[in-house]
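From the methods appendix. Each design record in this collection lists the tokenized structure first, followed by the designed amino acid sequence. Records were kept in a plain field format so they could be parsed without special tools. The example shown here is representative of the layout used throughout.

RECORD:
FOLD TOKENS (276 positions):
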């Protein structure tokens, strides 16, 4: 693997020093972008989210932020991933620091860009409810921080239950998201996604759907309401829109239809945007 770090290319070497706060404390952020034929999908949304999260968490902005897209494209080319689908990851850490929780005010943020093959998109999934809860009061629920242990454990529980992905409720007992995706339910014909205030990350595909489909509601759901859904899909920048075929063993026969409806809405919006 060839990675870019703070202006230099590193091949098959250590990319972070042992005292980097991203490594020792999870003090940092990341973004994952889809690349298709060497081009970045919806890069501006990802770059804006990274900058906004860095500001919210008091992280210094990356010194090479204005070059991110060019660096990402070159990273794809150097790894021979500029054909077909690939994943670009941007990792921003708080940089090097002495031991302890307090950041060194003179520390420089570290920016790492890596590329890898992208997973298959649009594949059906089986869902299982995880006992791990999203905490709406935690900054980690609203930003893509380097500490993803809640999602890791939720997904592990889902796999142990024979499912592919986890449905995570929040500490108030309401549905929030999947381990690595946003959720869109269809309940009695209404398309609904939980709001960010429920401990939900502002996913880029979720953002695009809300802009493209004004009929899609953003509101709180009770567990009972969610369990009345006849269709449920997961949205993720890399994996696209994935239909849930079942949730805790209950079939969701309308998920394929909901997937097609959402994809059509995105396609129409993008076609309209391209006209002017």
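DESIGN:
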């Amino acid at each position: 693997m060839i990675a870019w770090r703070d202006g230099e290319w590193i091949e098959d070497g250590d990319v972070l020093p042992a005292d980097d706060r991203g490594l020792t404390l999870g003090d940092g952020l990341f973004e994952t972008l889809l690349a298709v034929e060497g081009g970045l999908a919806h890069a501006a949304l990802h770059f804006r989210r990274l900058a906004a999260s860095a500001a919210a968490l008091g992280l210094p902005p990356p010194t090479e932020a204005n070059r991110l897209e060019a660096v990402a494209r070159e990273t794809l080319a150097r790894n021979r991933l500029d054909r077909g689908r690939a994943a670009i990851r941007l990792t921003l850490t708080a940089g090097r620091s002495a031991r302890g929780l307090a950041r060194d005010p003179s520390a420089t943020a570290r920016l790492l860009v890596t590329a890898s093959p992208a997973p298959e998109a649009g594949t059906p999934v089986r869902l299982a409810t995880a006992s791990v809860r999203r905490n709406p009061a935690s900054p980690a629920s609203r930003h893509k921080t380097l500490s993803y242990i809640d999602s890791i454990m939720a997904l592990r529980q889902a796999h142990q239950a024979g499912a592919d992905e986890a449905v995570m409720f929040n500490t108030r007992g309401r549905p929030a998201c999947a381990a690595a995706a946003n959720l869109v339910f269809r309940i009695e014909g209404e398309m609904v996604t939980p709001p960010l205030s429920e401990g939900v990350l502002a996913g880029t595909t979720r953002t695009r759907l809300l802009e493209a489909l004004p009929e899609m509601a953003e509101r709180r759901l009770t567990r009972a309401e969610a369990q009345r859904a006849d269709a449920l899909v997961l949205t993720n920048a890399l994996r696209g829109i994935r239909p849930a075929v079942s949730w805790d063993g209950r079939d969701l026969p309308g998920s394929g239809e909901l997937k097609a409806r959402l994809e059509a809405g995105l396609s129409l919006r993008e076609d309209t945007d391209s006209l002017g």
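APPENDIX NOTE: Residues 184 and 228 are 13 Å apart (CA to CA).
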